[in-house]
Write a structure and sequence with these properties.
alpha+beta, 11 strands, 4 helices, two-stranded antiparallel ribbon, 9-stranded mixed sheet, Extensin-like_C, single chain, Extensin, signal, globular
């Protein structure tokens, strides 16, 4: 009996060992020599396409290589900034002046006592010139301008009014011991040149007869009062120069003084350039 039980147990163990390596269903796979079995990957969802980059506002053309043996193409550049034009390149013309306006201006000069005379039309070419120029020898009675100045009538009128209503009253307060002003010394009136005497750039208002440069004021007694940097000058003379410089903007559309820049350290630049909206530049 014991032998029968042992035999049955052995047979059961062999059956278990035999069935352990077999799959639950189907035939056992045949393994060929030299090949291994690899599991097939489980198919997943298709990959998403990569988003296209946004198109820039301005496209850059692709760079192409030149054919072998040819010269490389020139680098494409943006538009060049316009170079400063010389006097000849500006092709300016002399602005015509109204007969009626000139006549009215002349009457006002005569009423103020300005000593002047009309001279022939000036045309130096390339926009330099004055349609109706005048030559002034006295800006007000007894106040000479040295040397004689040539410009348009509106400049003479602005100069006479500025002297009468601003410069003379301020000088009486600032330099009472020096007596009356007897002259103004000008550094430039009409001249055919570019701004600040540069070799390139825009035509100066002096070349159109619109400007006068004042270098100093002469008195009956004492020294001339020169125009020079006086921002830190705490004297009455410093106050005089700052006062007449500021007041100049009431009579001229442009006033540049020694505090403006290095080109005007020795004089006032006064001009009557007309700007849109009545804009004035005073510095």
């Amino acid at each position: 009996m014991k032998k029968i039980i042992v035999i049955l147990a052995a047979l059961s163990c062999i059956g278990l060992l035999t069935n352990a390596g077999l799959p639950e269903k189907g035939p056992r796979p045949e393994i060929r020599p030299g090949k291994s079995i690899t599991a097939k990957p489980t198919p997943g969802p298709p990959p998403k396409p990569e988003p296209k980059p946004e198109r820039p506002d301005t496209e850059t053309p692709p760079v192409t290589q030149p054919p072998s043996g040819s010269s490389p193409p020139l680098e494409k550049q943006g538009p060049k900034l316009p170079s400063q034009q010389t006097l000849e390149e500006q092709h300016l013309t002399i602005a015509p002046e109204s007969d009626a306006e000139h006549s009215e201006c002349v009457k006002e000069l005569q009423a103020l006592g300005v000593v002047f005379k009309d001279i022939s039309r000036i045309d130096d070419g390339n926009g330099c010139g004055i349609d109706k120029p005048i030559k002034v020898t006295e800006v007000l009675p007894g106040i000479k301008i040295k040397p004689d100045a040539v410009f348009r009538c509106p400049v003479a009128l602005g100069l006479a009014r500025w002297m009468k209503e601003s410069v003379i009253p301020a000088a009486r307060v600032a330099a009472p011991d020096q007596g009356s002003i007897v002259g103004i010394n000008q550094a430039s009136s009409y001249i055919c040149r570019l701004r600040n005497g540069a070799e390139t750039g825009k035509v100066s208002e002096h070349a159109r007869g619109n400007a006068i440069d004042i270098a100093s004021f002469s008195f009956e007694k004492g020294k001339d009062i020169a125009v020079q940097p006086r921002r830190e000058d705490s004297t009455l003379i410093g106050a005089f120069q700052r006062t007449v410089s500021s007041a100049g903007c009431l009579f001229f559309t442009t006033v540049l003084d020694p505090e403006s820049d290095a080109a005007h350290e020795t004089h006032f630049h006064l001009d009557v350039l007309e700007r849109k909206g009545g804009y004035r530049y005073c510095h």
